[in-house]
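During the no-cost extension, the postdoctoral fellow (Dr. R.K.) reprocessed legacy sequence entries with the updated structure-token encoder. One reprocessed record is reproduced below for audit purposes.
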Amino acid sequence: MQEDEQVVSGKGWRMIKPDEASDTRKEVGLTEAIERYGRKRSYSVENMMEGIEATTGSTTNAPPRKKVKPAPPPPISTTVMSAAPPSPLPSPNGSPPPENIWPSAPPSGHSSPQPHAPVQPDLSLATLLTLPSLLAHFSNLPPQLQSHVLLTFLRHSPLPVLRTLHSVLTPTLARDFLSLLPAELVSLILSYLSFADLARASRVSKTWRAIIDSDPVLWRELLKTTKIWFGGNTENAFADAIFARRRRLGTPLSSSLPLPHPYKMLFKSRHLTRTRWVQNQNPKRITFPAHGRSVVTCLIFSHGRIISASDDHSIHVYCPVTGTLVRSLDGHDGGVWALAATKNTLVSGSTDRTVRIWDLSTGRCTHVFGGHTSTVRCLAIVKPEWIDVQNENGTTTREKWPKRPLIVTGSRDHSLRVWTLPRPGDDEYRCYSADDTEVDPSEDEVDDNPYHRVHLEGHDHAVRALAARGRTMISGSYDCTVRVWDIINGACKWVLVGHTQKVYSVVLDIYRGLACSGSMDGTVRVWDLNTGACSHMLQGHTSLVGLLGLSPSHLVSAAADSTLRIWDPETGELQHTLAAHNGAITCFQHDEFKVLSGSDGTLKMWDIRDGTQVRDLLTGIVGVWQVIFEGRWCIAASNRTDSTVLDVWDFGGEDGDEEWVGEPPGGLYDEDTDDEDEFDVNEGELGVDPMDQDVEVSPSDLDEAFAEDPDVAEDEEDRLGEWEAPSKLPIPTQPATRSLGSRLESHRPVRGRLLLAPADASSSSTSTRSRPLPTNDETPTRPRIRNMIPRRR
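Re-encoded structure tokens follow.
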């Protein structure tokens, strides 16, 4: 095309002729100018953001889609040109139309590259320089137009810019309402969530998890709404045990999350107990032999250890995971019929009439107590706990009894005894018959035993069962009576008369002030400990009620009539009758969700709430001796034709089950509290505890006691056996007392205790014939008559 006049132009621009300019001057506002500028810029971007709506209203043609080789940008000119105004707004004469700036696409066969759109660096720089003026204009706009301007900017912003905006805006606009609201409102809001929703909410952030896990009100209400809150006593005992365990183990690292409240742990444990035992149809199970072919008389589960006792005189400790025998505790000369454990201490009672204390960590027998004249048939460890004590003026105070753990034992010699439980590191004591089989343990002078406290006499026949908590103990005897004792001062508070035949089982609830007893007369009686009256007589069984179990909501009785009955201990109402066994119930255990019962050939699980049978855990066996469960573990001892075996079930196995904390029967936990230590430290200030006094013996007393040395011969013919005692008892070769300096050097709190050395096994005796031991059924049931002649020790 021929031009009449020379056109002033350059690369990417040209001078506009006067006649090409618009005759009318049109002024535009800020919004329209920004939109026009945005439309022009959109043409120069090769890859526009996906999902961004293009600006409508433009009639110009888009540049070609063919990708061309990019050319280097031209240098920024410092000369202000007439075609590039120093303002982002259009000039009064207007800008040239885009079609004159953007040449049309060349033919397909054209080999020259397509030129780029002008970058206009001068306009960008000018816009940046006028940013304060632009912000001033933006501030003067109404909110609606400000939103429109920002949306327009966002529509034409690339993805990296949007990400930067997101990282800036998110923390500014975010508000954690749980951390800003008061704790009461937070508990109220979270109380509307289910357990599953709370578990998901605790994963939002560490702050939310700390708030949810540490809220006791939230978890207490959740326990109540799901009907697994059982009055408060067991829940408080669980919380106290968890707090005591944390104090013993120490606080966690500061960088870790705060520990959850015990109510949260309790909810999870009870939720798992309620669901896993029913839903897990194939729990892990191992079976291994134990005690040869002998009867398993006792079975307990303590601190991840299975402890079993048998009539073969042995006590075994097994690992529940592998079933391996960890330790074998040998020392009794008769069948072991009573067991109790706390931490690493085990207490056992036997037909050899002794009580032995074992260190489970080493398997060593540290103490042997003699004094009972017949089989030790039942025993219990009484841990210190807070109880309500009624004073003489009628007021009730909260006190902790006993001051330190005690042992209570019941025997066929018609009596009970109270002993102090030795602590680890306390001085050892072994009765004179412990290492000399020719010495009758019943002849041991318990007054010389610093651990013996009280001898409780009053029953007219063998003591078959006992239960003790705090200061209170109840005992059931073959004399058809139940007695209530104060184990601190030895007083008999009540003699509960009503059964017409032998009493075989008793249970105690000191929080509700009631006791229950089962008898051969087929009845179960509920007694009021405050008045000594019989509150309810539960009838329905047709034979011996040999087993009882008490939980906060249920009283369960098992009888020889092959049935179990579930009662309401408050009202005496019969709730359910469990009748599916074919023989006498030999063992059972229950909690607030289930009952496990064993009889001839089967071990069954029942739903305690509706009385239905859930499943059979064992079938096709000869008999079930014992069954226990705690948390995820269940252990049963049974007889398989010619051998005795232990079966162990693990109902856990999934992630998170490590926090499944089992609740021991009766709510008795093996966790010491700071209060127990406080009693020992401040003993001098609080006064001497009547159950924590130690015998003070002076050398003059010893000389007086040893002044006479008569030969002692005791020939008594028992009802079912003949027992012979040696004519002369051994004399300890070590001194019976120790100086104060030696006590201080031992670094053990002895507090003036009479220390007795173990008897010398090599001591002489005039009788060389060993005394025969009676069988289980041949132990005497009447008290032995002692010769009170002073004997030399």
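The longest strand covers residues 623-630. The chain has 17 helices and 39 strands. The remaining legacy entries will be reprocessed before the final report is submitted.
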